[in-house]
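> Could you send the SnoaL-like domain-containing protein prediction when you get a chance?

Sure thing. Input:
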Amino acid sequence: MLFYVQMRWNYQGRISQDKLWELEALEGDHGVEGIRAGFVQLYKVVSQHRIIAIVNADSLDDLDRNSMGWLPMREYLEFEQVWALRDYEGFLADVKAKFPQPGQPAPLPVPVDPAATREIATAWFRNLSEGRSEDALKLVDPDVIWDNVPPVPGVSDLAPWLGSYRGLPAVLKSFEVWAAHSKMLSFTLLGDVLVEGSRAVGIVHEHAQCLSNGNEYDLQVATFLTIRNRRIVEWRVCWDVAPLVRAYRGL
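Output:
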């Protein structure tokens, strides 16, 4: 079972910054053990007291035990987002079978080659990191579903490109809106791509600039790709909008 987990250190007024780092040294050893065991990939959000994890847990119970009872810093960690991630192929099979009732045989998803998923996802991130956006877009299905952060009051006026789009022309139009407001300075994949069936997950560090005032900002973006027939059919990202808001408002 795959989960997206967003955590924040909630320590202000409780312990000192130095004490926080002492605890984090212990927490870090626990995290590295999880990485080496294939249980989790961990990423620190730049300049924020946040950690993003992509967790591959055997069960809800194991995830809950880890977060509530095993983490050395469990008393000071606030779990802001915990999203269970379902394989898209299985969901699509349910859609086509009109969501069979309990007791009815579940439809079998089309066999997926994880190696092909990894190949396309790796090429996608590599092309974008090297500034070859045209080559990256050749990997996208014409009917792609693109989910950026949902529109949020107070944020969408600063970032009017946010939202959900279907079809490559609509996606490209949203990019044009983005390019009128921001400039990408660097795009870097952090760590390895995680692959499960037709789905791939990667964490990206984006360094960008607000064109209206020249302020630069950094984002940690969790990117979820669903790949079928060697094309990206669904592309969803999750990221904290706070750095963008600070840059655009000059805070």
